[in-house]
Design brief:
heterodimer; A: alpha/beta; TIM Barrel; eight-stranded parallel beta barrel; globular; B: alpha/beta; Rossmann fold; nine-stranded mixed β-sheet; three-stranded mixed β-sheet
């Protein structure tokens, strides 16, 4: 039986939570560890931390954050941002992450996916893909949406799977921060060409959007940030709504 | 009352989560990287992630296969987690050339069918008749949600104490005497997973 995970994403910068709208205009929304623990209690199925300005100087802050999170948050933790070597993955996994998410570095060095999958198992190698419709196809972007690669979303997703990715986190740049709903076309494209779990990301603003994402075959995770951080929707509202629409989710215990 | 858990570190994967969760439920845990004198320990936790063959070979390299056999033979409660459950069987189609520990009969197989692989999601476990009084499930009702991450599954048998279904019904937990294992990750299964770990810790607590 397929169940769908509801996943709050915490964009972090220097140890604090931020959330961009279309990748700019950052607003501080709190302490990541405190938020993550709250989300665990509230019934979140997993937490994604995205270190948006990851650099070698901010790495110790991130490792400390993961270690503190792992002390008190007992659901899966994924960390993305700045993973460009196997050793980066090792440090992050050791600190307390369960999975690492690769984005730009997987494109500049696809072998990194297989190296991490071999060393730590596919289950901790998530490949995150940012894509934007360019008029003829969904094009993959890197570096927080700044660089176009010319790669087609589905093709890259398939290559990533073949290299050993255990999961794909697909973000629509057209929708991110817009609250207009997931880009279903982009998700369908990835679902058609792959057979590993997919996390849908970018664009949720209303309950119906979660349902639209969950109805795409192959989507097993629904990721959202600001709707949760700013209290517009709660995890239990989202889950109760999905349950009422016959989507299988882990219910929130009262 | 005394509890001391040996968490076996044979160089595969991240033990921090398991160690932290055990600490959280109040266990005294030693992460051990070499052979130990079992008389100081009241419980053993055998984790495992990634490839079956790589796990078994590393386990043997550290001499922990012998340790597990001795522990089981002397009735020290053992909890296997994820590949730590799979290794208890005779083998796995993931690594046909590598023998498992053979403490349980049968072979671990890959999920085939419509569902996406790996199963990376929460799923419910159904406690089997005859195991509802298992001490591992104290305080846990039937159909509880646990977090699973795996591409291979263990078969059903008399040892199956609960099942999960992902295209096929398989062993979510096993129990034979003082030998316990979970295919899911209790350390990542929020409150209910922590309860299960707490139950194991109390099983591994001895008088004196």
């Amino acid at each position: 039986m397929r169940s769908v995970r509801v996943i709050p994403c915490l964009d972090i910068d220097a140890g604090r939570v931020v959330k961009g709208t279309n990748f700019v205009d950052l607003t501080d929304a709190g302490d990541p560890v405190e938020l993550a623990a709250l989300y665990d209690l509230a019934g979140a199925d997993e937490i994604v931390f995205l270190d948006i300005a990851a650099s070698s100087s901010s790495r110790p802050i991130t490792l400390d954050l993961l270690s503190r999170a792992a002390d008190q948050v007992f659901i899966p933790l994924t960390i993305g941002g700045g993973v460009s070597r196997v050793d980066d993955a090792r440090q992050l996994l050791r600190a307390g992450a369960d999975k690492v998410s690769l984005n730009s570095s997987a494109i500049s060095n696809p072998a990194l996916i297989s190296e991490i999958a071999q060393e730590f198992g596919s289950q901790c190698a998530v490949v995150a893909i940012d894509a934007k419709f360019n008029g003829s196809f969904y094009e993959v972007y890197t570096h927080g949406g700044r660089n176009a690669t010319g790669l087609e979303l589905g093709t890259w997703a398939k290559v990533a799977e073949r290299l050993g990715a255990g999961e794909l986190l697909v973000t629509s740049m057209d929708r991110d921060g817009t609250k207009e709903g997931f880009d279903i076309g982009a998700l369908m494209r990835v679902a058609e060409l792959t057979s590993i779990p997919i996390i849908a990301s970018g664009g949720v603003g209303r309950l119906e959007h979660f349902l639209e994402g969950a109805e795409v075959p192959g989507v097993s995770g629904l990721l959202a940030a600001s709707v949760f951080h700013f209290g517009q929707l709660s995890i239990s509202q989202v889950k109760n709504f999905l349950i009422s629409k016959s989507i299988v989710v882990r219910p929130v215990q009262e | 009352m005394r509890t001391k858990i040996a968490l076996l570190d044979y160089g595969i994967g991240n033990l921090q989560s398991v160690a932290k969760a055990l600490n959280h439920v109040g266990a005294d845990v030693d992460v051990v990287e070499s052979s130990i004198d079992l008389k100081y320990y009241t419980g053993i936790v055998l984790p495992g992630v990634g490839n079956f063959g790589a796990c078994v070979n590393a386990l043997k390299h550290f001499g922990f296969d012998e340790l597990v056999y001795r522990g089981v033979a002397s009735g020290i409660p053992l909890l296997g987690v994820c590949v730590g459950l799979q290794m208890l069987f005779e083998g796995s189609s993931e690594s046909p050339e590598t023998k498992g520990l053979g403490l349980l009969p049968g072979k671990v197989l890959r999920f085939e069918g419509q569902e996406r692989v790996p199963q990376m999601q929460w799923n419910t476990i159904s406690i089997r008749e005859g195991f509802s009084k298992s001490r591992l499930f104290t305080g846990l009702e039937d159909d509880r949600w646990m977090y699973f991450v795996h591409s291979y599954f263990a078969p059903l048998g008399d040892f199956t104490s609960s099942t999960a279904t992902y295209g096929v019904e398989y062993s979510a937990t096993v129990e034979v005497g003082d030998l316990y294992a979970t295919q899911f990750h209790p350390e990542k299964s929020s409150k209910e997973g922590l309860r299960l770990l707490e139950n194991f810790v109390s099983i591994a607590t001895v008088a004196s």
